[in-house]
Amino acid sequence: MKRIIVTGALGQIGTELTLKLRELYGEDNVLPTDIKEPVDSPLEGKPFEILDVTDYEEMVRICKEFNGDTMMHLAALLSATCEKDPQLAWNINMGGLVNALETARTLNLQFFTPSSIGSFGPSTPKDNTPQTTIQRPVTMYGVNKVSGELLCNYYFEKFGVDTRGVRFPGLISHVREPGGGTTDYAVEIFFEAVKNGKYASFIDKGTFMDMMYMDDAIQAIIDLMEADASKLEDRNAFNVTKMSFDPEMVAESIRRHYPEFELTYDVDPVRQGIAENWPNSIDASEAKRQWGFDAKFDLDKMTDTMIEAIKKKL
Ligand code: VAH
């Protein structure tokens, strides 16, 4: 039976991952942690621990007490936030990761942490980006993600820690909105469409990025962690994606519900600059081949689901 500690459990991925893990493995077998109490969160009032991932002693104490066998490390600052304070980003993203890997090594935990399409840079092939290719990111977030991929691989090769991870595209969800990401426009646009019938995108027309609906992302984590280790030729940097789109394509899909929806542009030079350094579309064939990755939500199915859920929420 799996007993899983989740860091960053109040984040965009952490919230829905925790709910899914509780459903699969039982509430008592999942320990969500984050730097603050779950207020106005679906995780409110259930087993929960306050944990700052830069505090190694506290992380080991909590994990020992819970007696888990798996660590899913999600606590991190996202791309645009990292550019505001790169030194803080390094301390949290890398300091937290080293602590989590050391905890996994000393307590013999299976380990998951996500990388991102942000681990690629301007010299990476932009279309159908292969899983193994040049990675010279020019953002602190990208440096953190490439370093994290290499570090997780090292802990597997050197110490035998069962580390696994995927490179996520932009993730679209309605349960817990993201914060500080470059792809967040693709979440905001749905909320604004339902609330106001219009949206001013901070990412420009014609800027293509890989995206995936959160349900597919959560299923990918579960499938990878449950995969037969003997089938994994790679460990920590599986490209996963379902679609690539620009703001115009999302607007078209939204107009199937709101024909009058108005999309305008108020481009944020920082996040536009980050987006232009990322691939237009990545190749997920290795994840499909090695552990059966599959994603079910295309753009229209995601739009229908998001709009339905947001209308209920509001
Ligand atoms: C970000 N949502 O925008 C994250 C993600 C691929 C994008 O890494 O920073």
Automatic annotation (TrEMBL):
By its UniProt entry, which SUPFAM superfamilies does this protein fall under?
A: NAD(P)-binding Rossmann-fold domains (SSF51735)
Q: List the Gene3D superfamilies.
A: NAD(P)-binding Rossmann-like Domain (3.40.50.720)
A Pfam family annotated for this chain is Epimerase
**All copies of domain NAD-dependent epimerase/dehydratase, residue ranges:** 4-233
Show the InterPro entries listed in the entry: Epimerase_deHydtase, NAD(P)-bd_dom_sf, NAD(P)_epim/dehydratase
GO molecular function terms here?
L-threonine 3-dehydrogenase activity
What GO biological process terms does the UniProt entry carry, in alphabetical order? L-threonine catabolic process
The Swiss-Prot or TrEMBL record describes its family as follows: Belongs to the NAD(P)-dependent epimerase/dehydratase family.
Name of the protein this chain belongs to: Putative epimerase/dehydratase
Highest classification ranks of the organism:
Bacteria, Bacillati, Bacillota, Bacilli, Bacillales
